[in-house]
UniProtKB/TrEMBL annotation:
It comes from the Bacteria. Its EC number is 5.3.1.9. The active site is at E294 (proton donor), H319, K434. It is found in: Cytoplasm. The keyword Repeat does not apply. InterPro entries: G6P_Isomerase, Phosphoglucose_isomerase_CS, SIS_dom_sf, SIS_PGI_1, SIS_PGI_2. Keywords: Cytoplasm, Gluconeogenesis, Glycolysis, Isomerase. HAMAP family: G6P_isomerase. Belongs to the GPI family. It comes from Thermodesulforhabdus norvegica. One of its GO terms (cellular component) is cytosol. This is Glucose-6-phosphate isomerase. It catalyses: alpha-D-glucose 6-phosphate = beta-D-fructose 6-phosphate.
Length: 453
């Protein structure tokens, strides 16, 4: 068990070990020993890259200027009549902000509080049209996020909204209704920032979108909502300090990453399920899907690498996926993401009527007890069937603990990528469809790609 210090997240790996699920499916000491030499080489590589400034996701959590700039922008809008904060972005430019929002505010926040928060991370024309019909542009701030500043989906949203704001409120209103988060030097959005004078934050050139949640990409929306971004990044730094150890077993990012690589390559578990036993962490599992899929799903020569990440929600998916996970193909390793305590719980009253006697065992308990019981029982039932599983425990979901989780999985993903022998920072598999889209939409220089269609 790691992460026993107060306020630290931690793993329980008992049910992924061979002692619990058998040597064919579980991880034995000998399995770990075989991988340790390679794991130590990866640690040395990570150290060198960090010293050389090549790990932007690590550097960004130590850059105090990022917090200062983000808080300046939040202060600029403080006290203004703002009903809506709207993120225009996709992929890594949206998933982190959504995960932060869902983790740290009530699921009914938008029904009771202003400003409301929306992430428009798709270009379904019906959804976007209906949103524009519903929102009061005069009381809305749009946060436009694109690392490259050329993302077609985000640019299309931006052009539509910009035109409507100008038509309704005038060109001078742009400064009151837009914040741009993009490359410091390049791209269409950076050029527009220079021309229009709207507020902006930089995304460091070496920081990929899926690793950017602890940068301005995630911090600007969070700060505009009044979330504690200092605590968020302090939590990330606390986890980074814990992960500086060279000991693979004592380093939570390395140990968990190694277990997942062994499960994939040695045990045939190439589907990695992230089962959030907290509604507040379901979007975190969504963020994880992109981080893992884009970082690790790679082709190297003729070899294909990468686990398939799947998200699930507890207890809901006990009634939709558990049957498959326990009795279907044994090709999965499951991570339960649990919370030890909540800021609120609900008492279950006694079942007083005779007709409800069979429900009497629930009376006098708390809903949280039932939630924990179902999580524990599901983990045990899977282990009993030889299905390896891990639990990541949050003491509570706070800015401090969610900051830890973001950093831990970013580092774990890099560690796994290097063990696989792939580059966790690129995504060549998505480039062709982008180029074909450009060709279909008439972008100059991409005409040749239309012929494929």
């Amino acid at each position: 068990m790691t992460g026993t210090a107060k306020g630290m997240i931690g793993f329980d790996w008992a049910y992924c070990r061979a002692l619990a699920v058998g040597v064919q499916d579980g991880i034995a000491d000998e399995d770990v020993e075989r991988w340790l030499p390679e794991a130590r080489k990866v640690h040395e590589r990570i150290l060198k890259e960090r010293e050389s400034g090549l790990l932007a996701f690590w550097d960004i959590i130590e850059d105090e200027k990022v917090e200062e700039r983000v808080l300046e922008i939040a202060e600029h809008f403080k006290g203004r009549l703002v009903d809506n904060i709207v993120v225009l972005g996709i992929g890594g430019s949206a998933l982190g902000a959504q995960a932060l929002f869902d983790a740290l505010v009530s699921p009914f926040y938008n029904l009771t509080t202003r400003p409301r928060f929306f992430v428009l991370d798709n270009i379904d024309p019906l959804t976007f049209s209906q949103f524009l019909d519903m929102v009061d542009l005069g009381r809305t701030v749009f946060v436009v996020i694109s690392k490259s500043g050329t993302t077609a989906e985000t640019l299309s949203q931006f052009l539509i909204v910009k035109e409507r704001v100008v038509s309704l409120l005038g060109r001078e209103a742009l400064k009151k209704h837009f914040v741009v988060v993009t490359d410091p030097d390049k791209g269409v959005l950076r050029s527009w920032v220079r021309e229009s004078g709207v507020l902006s934050c930089d995304i460091p050139p070496g920081l990929g979108g899926r690793f950017s949640v602890l940068s301005a990409v995630g911090l600007v929306p969070a700060a505009l909502l009044g979330l504690d971004i200092r605590e968020l990044r302090e939590g990330a730094r606390a986890m980074a300090a814990l992960c500086e150890t060279a000991s693979v077993i004592e380093n939570p990012a390395y140990c968990n990453g190694l277990y997942h690589v062994i499960a994939d390559l040695d045990k045939g578990k190439n589907i990695h399920v992230y089962w959030a036993y907290s509604d507040s962490l379901y979007s975190f599992a969504d963020w994880l899907r992109q981080l893992i899929a884009e970082s690790l799903g790679k082709k190297v020569g003729e070899k294909l690498y990468g686990p398939t990440p799947v998200k699930a929600r507890g207890v809901t998916d006990q009634h939709s996926q558990l049957q498959l996970y326990r009795e279907g193909p044994n090709n999965k390793i499951i991570t339960f993401i649990g919370v030890k305590s909540w800021p609120a719980d609900v008492d279950i009253p006694p079942a007083e009527e005779e007709s409800l006697a069979d429900a009497g065992y629930l009376g006098g308990k708390k809903m949280g007890e039932l939630f924990h019981a179902e999580q524990r029982a599901t983990a045990w039932a899977l282990a009993e069937a030889g299905r390896p599983n891990i639990t990541l425990w949050f003491p509570q979901v706070t800015p401090y603990t969610i900051g830890q989780a973001f950093f831990l999985y970013e580092l774990q993903t890099v560690f796994m990528g290097y063990l696989y022998g792939v580059n966790p920072f690129d995504q060549p598999g998505v480039e062709l469809s982008k180029k074909m889209t450009y060709g279909l939409m008439g972008r100059k220089g991409f005409e040749e790609f239309v012929r494929y269609l």
